[in-house]
Amino acid sequence: MEARFDLMANPLGAKIAKRIYNVALAIVQSPLSETIQNLVMLRASQINGCGFCVDYHTKDATAVGETAVRLNLVAAWRESTVFTEAERAALALTEEGTRIADAHPGVSDETWARVREHYDDDQIAALVSLIAMINANNRLNVIVRNPGGSYEPGRFAELAG
């Protein structure tokens, strides 16, 4: 499988990608834990069928010590015992925030209440922004058909700044 279009080879595409990456840096530097960030990005990417992003976020999570068992169970988190209540709340918010176009009623009051139990306002700002941004990234990569499999952790560090 080959990508339809290389956004990074196009000057405008590269300019946009750099700005998206800088938004991602603000989220990375937030008080939202790296573990939650990795789980959220992986789950949204699975739902959206983005092979590139599933590859990317699985490898980045592994590079910082996430276990294969937990990564393998993200898609079935409701039927798994390896996630904390805070992680479950974030994964529920991710699914409800991602599936809006699937005639989902949006984020339920129950899910929002669980998120409020586990996260402060800064963490929620980061979490909501992360869900929006990973969905945007998934769509960019699915539209141009970027294939998964060749990502190396740290590949996009040059975009910072």
Automatic annotation (TrEMBL):
Q: Where is the Carboxymuconolactone decarboxylase-like domain?
A: 17-96
- Transmembrane regions listed in the UniProt entry: none
Q: Which domain of life is it from?
A: Bacteria
Give the residues annotated as coiled coil: none
| SUPFAM superfamilies cross-referenced by the UniProt entry | AhpD-like
Q: Which InterPro entries match?
A: AhpD-like, AhpD_core, CMD-like
Kindly provide the name given to this protein in its UniProt entry: Carboxymuconolactone decarboxylase family protein
Annotated source species: Actinoallomurus oryzae
